Structure formats: structure tokens, C-alpha cells
Amino acid sequence: MSEQKIRFDDGAGYEQMMGKWSRLAGDVFLDWLQAPAEKHWVDIGCGNGAFTELLIERCAPSAVSGIDPSEGQLAYARERPGCRLAVFQQGDAMSLPYAGGSFDAAVMALVIFFVPDPAKGVAEMSRVVKPGGLVSAYAWDMLGGGFPLAAIQAQMRVMGHIPMLPPSPEVSRKQALHETWVAAGLKAVETTEIKVQRTFDDFENYWQIAMVGSSVGPTIKALPAPDYEALKTSVQQGLEHGSKGGRIVVHARANAVRGFVPN
Ligand SMILES: C[S@@+](CC[C@H](N)C(=O)[O-])C[C@H]1O[C@@H](n2cnc3c(N)ncnc32)[C@H](O)[C@@H]1O
Q1: Which CATH number applies to 11-260: 3.40.50.150, 3.40.50.880, 3.30.830.10, 3.10.180.10?
Q2: Which residue has its alpha carbon closest to ligand 1 atom 22?
Q3: What percent of the chain lies above the pLDDT cut of 90?
Q4: CA of 24: how far to CAs of 2, 132, 196, 227, 251, in Å?
Q5: What is the pLDDT of residues 59-72, one digit of tens each?
Q6: Domain boundaries, the chain
Q7: 3 pLDDT more than 70
Q8: Probe ligand 1: pick from 5, 8, 9, 171, max atoms within 8 Å of CB?
């Protein structure tokens, strides 16, 4: 793993790249969750509000608190018309600034692998949710090739460039999520797999959006020009193989988990 860290300081850039992916996966996640309406939610690692907006639209919550360490992401979330119900504040998943039993439900959307101590993050979610309440998450299967930019990461590795990874990628495995939830004392723990796809007009459209994101963009843009072009060409050849009419269809896969705080 490289020494660099994936940064989230551009809410608008995040929206183009990962915000759209988050909503695609979030929709499938919420179909699976079947959460009741009129509940008080906490959205941990809410980022720029991409999933928060979907949660409000789909689950009709009575209230939502969103928390994230990045002010750049939160500034974007606060301006989203679809997030007016939510109250956003800065903070860390491993030390939530809420009293025990404050919420009916907690969610981490594409966040748990960014938490340096995932077990602590899940313990905090369990603490702030009432007995009988829901603790849930979904995460790209980072080590199983589920990340939307996995094709670029794979080609980077082939060419000797090390892609940045979040600090806790191993927790995104389905079995690891299950074990982490059970170890936190949560009950009726279940997991599922979420498969989504996104279509780009052409390869250039796909590449430009990938470069905006904070995961592979900074490393690739820092490459010497010949290496940059060689990498781009290899990724293009791989993705265009089998695609029709210039459009690029990219597949991604996440794992989801839910459990309940014991009564
Ligand atoms: C991939 S984004 C997901 C954002 C949003 N939940 C979504 O679905 O679009 C990951 C988010 O986790 C946040 N994050 C990173 N470390 C965190 C931590 N220790 N506690 C809470 N959030 C964290 C980042 O700032 C970023 O906004």
C-alpha cells in the first residue's frame, strides 16, 4: 500500500465520481433493508450527502443526523435541496458525539473500510442506537474486485504502480462484515451482495470521471506522461474489448450487512 491517503475534500468532484455510484448501490441496499418510515437515523461518514438524500427520499425518516470528518464534503451536503431534513456535523465514526440510544437506526454507506478500527466504529454505532434498533452498512468488495475502479487498479498493479487503498479494506469481505457485526453483539445479523452497473458515453467520459475521484486520480495524474498514456491505453483496451458502440459499461459489487441492538 502507498503512503498516501485517500482524501475527501471536494464534495462536487465526489458527486461526479462516487456519489453516483453510491446512489446506485444505495438503492439496491435500501430495497434489501426494507426499513420502516418515521425513524431517527444517523448516517455515519455521510460525505457529501449522496446516500443521505436517497435515505430521505426512500425511507421518509422523522430525522437524520449526518456525520463526517470532511468539511469539504459536509459543505456540499448542507447545500443539497434533498437533504434539508438532515443535520450535519463534523466527527469521527470511532468517537461519535451522541448519547447512548439516541437513534432508531444507523448506517455507514461506503465508509467502514475508511475507519481505521472498524470494530470500534461498529461498537459506536451499536452504542448510539436504541435497543431493538438497526445497525447497517454497505461497502465495495475492495479485495474481491468489486470497487468501481477495479479495472484501473488492476492495470496499475500490472504496470508497477501501487493504487491507494483505504485503511481497512479486509472488512469489506462479506464474511468479515458478518463477523464484525456478530462480534459487536448485534442480533439477527444478515449479509447480502449488491451488484450494480453504470454506463459511460465513451471511454474518455469514463476516464475523466475516474480522474476526478480521490482514489486513483491523484496517483495517476502524478505519473510521468509516457506512463500515464501507457496506463490509459491499457485500461481503454481492456474496457473496450467486448463493448458495443463506444459506450462503456462498468460493473461493481458491494457487500451489505445488517443487525439489531439486543433488547
Ligand atoms: C466513499 S465516501 C462515502 C460517502 C457517503 N456515505 C456516500 O455514500 O456517498 C467515504 C466517506 O467516509 C468518510 N470518512 C473517512 N474516515 C472516516 C471516519 N473515521 N469516520 C467517519 N467517516 C469517515 C470520508 O470523509 C468520506 O466522506
Answers
A1: 3.40.50.150
A2: 45
A3: 90
A4: 29, 28, 6, 32, 11
A5: 999 999 999 999 99
A6: 11-260
A7: no
A8: 8
